[in-house]
Write a structure and sequence with these properties.
Blueprint: H1 3-14, H2 18-26, H3 28-31, H4 42-54, E1 58-63, H5 71-91, E2 95-99, H6 110-127, E3 131-133, H7 141-152, E4 158-163, H8 169-178, E5 183-186, H9 201-217, E6 222-225, H10 229-242, E7 249-254, H11 259-267, E8 272-278, H12 283-292, H13 296-306
Parallel strand pairs: 1-2, 1-8, 2-3, 3-4, 4-5, 5-6, 6-7, 7-8
């Protein structure tokens, strides 16, 4: 295991610590946690998206939340997404939504989750908006794909996410291409055993480029979600060499990370979408962002030192 992988696993292990959670919540401003999400309220998020749109950047909106353990809470979370979709339409901002199925009750039960998701789908249909089902840890992949395909029988403006660190992802991509499901490719941000995921960064990066290359070669729309400059430059080279229309893909980055590069890519004529999270349940999301890019720890430590 290299040093980056060790640090990543350490951060994800700490994410489950109650004492670390209390510390981060207490010092959220000093730690710079607010850098990574648009605010607490839906109005905060819409305002952030307006600013992004002015810069030529699209958005995908995420109401932050993790796995829920009861039907009542899952319904509350689904109601929040219905409100999100209607707010996007009312504000006339250029944005879609990203949704975690465990937030919608997947761990409570498949039918519970499907019922909540169908209410969200109905709201998306009102404005013909697109929705992306986020992928979570490896234990939820099959259940997530099952719900995805069930929902697409009635509404096809639904895509999902694939993680390049999972061994299975190449086969999952083939299935999604065959079914015409657009995908977002990410590296992966959960703590996974070596039995299911590549342990070395070099292998994760290689897998990532292979997945993107497959989509581009076969004309399958792909969202290339990365801050890795080497990957971005490789995609730019492929696009130039192969005369790939820019309407066939988009770059995606996270709110608060490499904002200048997002603006630069948009100014160069690429489709760029920013993942805009908001809400009170931001701790787990924040810790995964640190784990994805341990270099962000330098920013955190400098913030604490100045404090």
């Amino acid at each position: 295991m290299d040093s980056t992988q060790f640090l990543r696993q350490l951060i994800l292990n700490l994410a489950g610590s109650a004492s670390v959670s209390r510390f981060v919540h207490k010092h959220d401003k000093a730690l710079g946690a607010r850098r990574f999400f648009a605010g607490i309220t839906l109005q905060d998020a819409i305002a952030a998206i307006r600013q992004l749109n002015k810069q030529g950047i699209l958005a995908t909106l995420d109401h932050l939340g993790e796995s829920v353990t009861n039907a009542a809470e899952a319904k509350v979370q689904a109601d929040a997404y219905v409100d999100v979709l209607r707010a996007i339409a009312d504000a006339k901002v250029d944005a879609n939504v990203s949704i975690k199925l465990t937030q919608m009750g997947l761990d409570v039960g498949r039918e519970e989750c499907l019922g909540n998701m169908r209410r969200i789908v109905a709201a998306a249909q009102e404005s013909q908006n697109f929705m992306r089902i986020d992928m979570e840890d490896s234990q939820h992949v099959d259940a997530t794909l099952d719900v995805l395909f069930a929902l697409r029988r009635d509404y096809d403006k639904i895509g999902t996410v694939l993680q390049s660190y999972l061994y299975r992802t190449k086969n999952d991509l083939e299935r999604l291409i065959a079914e015409g499901v657009t995908v977002r490719i990410v590296k992966g941000a959960y703590l996974e055993p070596e039995s299911v995921a590549f342990p070395q960064k070099a292998d994760v990066d290689r897998s990532y480029l292979e997945l993107v290359d497959t989509c581009l070669k076969r004309g399958h729309y792909v969202a290339i979600a990365t801050h890795d400059e080497a990957i971005i430059q490789q995609v730019e080279a492929w696009v130039k060499e192969r005369n790939i229309p820019r309407e066939r893909f988009e770059f995606q980055m996270l709110y608060g990370i490499r904002s200048a590069r997002q603006r630069e890519l948009a100014a160069a004529g690429y489709r760029v979408r920013c993942y805009v999270p908001y809400g009170t349940d931001w701790y787990a999301y924040f810790m995964r962002r640190l784990a994805e890019r341990p270099a962000n720890l330098g920013f955190i430590l400098r913030s604490l030192w100045r404090k």
